[in-house]
């Protein structure tokens, strides 16, 4: 985390790219640049069209007014229970474990929303435990953020122990991009802690393009699956990143070869600053149709959209 690249100027310089439009400063002021060394190393030098670069490089367009693109497109503010917990769906609650991520994805629906305010518990989990205890129907806790795996081991252990102490919780789902962006975060200690838990762990990683998967990522994923932890992937459909049959097919094929199941392909949430990433739903449906013809059924992700106020993610 300390070694990460923290400005567009630094990123461009290290990748041998020309200096950017001065207007990118406005984009960076809205959402700072943050790119792990590991992720940056998978970007092709000198290629402004690189599908990984597009996900992390601030561009001037982000700061332009964008009709229908808003600060909180998924209604998270309304779903807040307090104590770091969000509940939108039956019997599962999401914990905002931290506001920190191992990469800043320019299309993120959390880019403006102040998740650090939801993480105001600052690692004191007593209130969360009380809230979960008072809602015994909740049998699954989803750790999210930010990225929960940016917590250091000590804080991580405290969080897992707090959830284990709620007897009505059966499963622990971890939503993290860290196995992709800083794969060394997954070590034997981490896997052993989950294996020794009474909670059934499920890991959901976030990878949008096959180029994000290098040997270190393969090793991290193998450690998880080898430890008996089921791993799913969610991706976001992004213009000029993965909006082609070839890009999605090669991603899904690679994932299932690594025993990772493609779970969701998300339609972009209409967050302010991300309009240039949007792909039309019609096009998304065509892409999924093509994937069905090319891949085993279990390798085709569900194409979904999040609508505030609905009882589940909506199928597209
Ligand atoms: C997406 C989401 C979940 C998980 O939904 P699944 O369909 O079970 O993957 C849970 N809580 C919140 C607040 C979510 O946004
Ligand atoms: S890692 Fe996830 S939460 Fe963090 S910026 Fe990327 S998409 Fe958003």
Please state how the strands of the largest beta sheet are arranged side by side: 1-2-3-4-5-6-7-8-9-10
Categorize the overall geometry. globular
The helix content, as a percent range, equals: 25-40%
Report the average pLDDT across residues: 95
Distance between the termini: 36 Å
Whole-number radius of gyration? 19 Å
Q: Structural class, judged by helices and strands?
A: alpha/beta
Describe this structure in words.
It contains twelve helices and ten strands. By secondary structure, the protein is α/β, with parallel strands linked by helices. It has a ten-stranded mixed beta sheet. Helix 12 (281-294) links the parallel strand 8 and strand 9 (302-305). The two termini are 36 Å apart. The structure holds pyridoxal-5'-phosphate (PLP) and iron/sulfur cluster. Pyridoxal-5'-phosphate binds next to strand 2 and strand 3.
Gist?
The chain contains twelve helices and ten strands.
What key attributes describe this structure?
single chain; 316 residues; alpha/beta; binds iron/sulfur cluster
């Amino acid at each position: 985390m300390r070694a990460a690249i923290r400005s567009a100027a630094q990123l461009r310089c290290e990748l041998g790219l020309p200096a950017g439009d001065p207007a990118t400063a406005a984009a960076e002021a809205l959402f700072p640049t943050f790119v792990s060394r590991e992720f940056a190393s998978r970007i092709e030098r000198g290629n402004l069209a690189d599908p990984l670069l597009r996900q992390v490089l601030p561009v001037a367009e982000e700061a332009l007014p964008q009709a229908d693109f808003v600060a909180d497109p998924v209604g998270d503010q309304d779903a807040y229970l307090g104590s770091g917990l969000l509940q939108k769906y039956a019997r599962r609650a999401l914990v905002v474990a931290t506001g920190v991520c191992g990469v800043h994805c320019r299309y993120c629906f959390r880019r403006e929303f102040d998740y650090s305010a939801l993480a105001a518990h600052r690692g004191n989990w007593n209130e969360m435990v009380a809230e979960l205890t008072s809602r015994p129907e909740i049998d699954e806790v989803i750790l999210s953020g930010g990225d929960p795996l940016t917590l250091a081991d000590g804080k991580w252990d405290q969080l897992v122990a707090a959830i284990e102490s709620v007897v009505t919780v059966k499963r622990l789902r971890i939503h993290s991009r860290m196995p992709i962006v800083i794969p060394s975060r997954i070590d034997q200690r981490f896997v052993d802690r989950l294996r020794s838990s009474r909670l059934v762990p499920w890991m959901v990683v976030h990878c949008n393009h096959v180029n994000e998967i290098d040997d270190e990522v393969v090793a991290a994923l193998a450690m998880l699956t080898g430890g008996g932890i089921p791993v799913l992937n969610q991706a976001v459909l992004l213009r000029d990143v993965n909006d082609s049959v070839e890009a999605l097919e090669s991603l899904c094929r690679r994932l299932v070869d690594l025993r990772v199941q493609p779970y969701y392909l998300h339609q972009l949430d209409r967050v302010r600053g991300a309009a240039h990433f949007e792909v039309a739903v019609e096009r998304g449906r065509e892409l999924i149709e093509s994937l069905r013809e090319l891949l085993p059924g279990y390798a085709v992700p569900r194409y979904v959209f999040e609508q505030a106020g609905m009882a589940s993610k909506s199928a597209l």
